[in-house]
């Protein structure tokens, strides 16, 4: 390129696309980082639209490349708990119908799989959030001996819930929980490690659960957050209860 050509190129007014890229690339990088750096094109496109940007999926993908960000891939490894062949097992009351009228959330982080420590504390957290009464709740799990421990199953019944288990060796019967566990490991544990203490993992999990419920966009929820779906659900229930009987029967 001649010196005259170089001066002409450097003095040329930036194109509208270039100016828009200069504006959007940092925004894509910021939003991606704020969401654990895990969103792919689909969720980033939905997030950008929610932020008010008139942008298409292909443009989102191009901007992500310019920003040097991409989504994470789920692990295909499957880990299962060990069952106790001598234990009496509850029936499968879920039958892969993974829907619920409400949401109860409990979690725990511990250095042991003992039922009275890891699982019990997660169950008790869910119970506290529900006012100490889990009546009407179906507690579904696999056949792991820690879930079938008498001290744990007794606590489930004490809180008013009904225990349920899937079939042996079939991860599809517990697909919802398996999917959540997989995402937790993919989006948090493997992304933010290495971890030095249980306390580090516990604090990070606390933050992750809040993000999961209040900010994370879920494809299964039409790119809404769980809190948005739950709020809409309760609003619909309240509206139905306030409607005159004649209108409800139309």
TrEMBL record:
This is Transposase. InterPro entries: HTH-like_dom, Integrase_cat-core, RNaseH-like_sf, RNaseH_sf, Transposase_IS3/IS150/IS904. It comes from the Bacteria. GO terms for molecular function: nucleic acid binding. One of its GO terms (biological process) is DNA integration. Involved in the transposition of the insertion sequence. It comes from Agromyces seonyuensis. Residues 21-77 form the HTH-like domain. Residues 164-226 form the Integrase catalytic domain. The lineage of its organism: Bacteria, Bacillati, Actinomycetota, Actinomycetes, Micrococcales.
């Amino acid at each position: 390129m001649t010196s005259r050509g170089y001066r002409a190129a450097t003095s040329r007014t930036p194109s509208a696309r270039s100016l828009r890229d200069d504006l959007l690339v940092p925004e894509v990088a910021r939003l991606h980082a704020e969401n654990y750096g895990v969103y792919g094109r689909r969720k980033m496109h939905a997030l950008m639209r929610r932020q008010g940007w008139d942008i298409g999926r292909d443009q989102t993908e191009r901007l992500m490349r310019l920003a040097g960000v991409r989504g994470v891939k789920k692990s295909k490894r499957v880990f299962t708990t060990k069952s106790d062949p001598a234990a009496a097992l509850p029936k499968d009351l879920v039958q892969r119908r993974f829907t619920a009228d409400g949401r109860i959330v409990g979690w725990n982080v511990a250095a042991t799989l003992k039922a009275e420590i890891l699982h019990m504390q997660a169950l008790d957290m869910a119970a506290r959030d529900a006012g100490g009464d889990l009546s009407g709740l179906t507690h579904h799990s696999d056949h792991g001996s820690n879930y079938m421990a008498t001290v744990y199953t007794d606590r489930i019944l004490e809180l008013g819930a009904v225990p349920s288990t899937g079939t042996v060796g079939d991860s599809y019967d517990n697909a919802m929980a398996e999917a959540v566990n997989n995402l937790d490991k993919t989006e948090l544990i493997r992304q933010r490690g290495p971890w030095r203490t249980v306390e580090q993992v516990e604090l990070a999990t606390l933050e992750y659960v809040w993000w999961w419920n209040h900010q994370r966009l879920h494809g299964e929820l039409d790119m809404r957050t769980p809190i948005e779906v739950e709020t809409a659900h309760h609003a619909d229930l309240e509206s139905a209860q306030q409607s005159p009987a004649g209108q409800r029967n139309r």
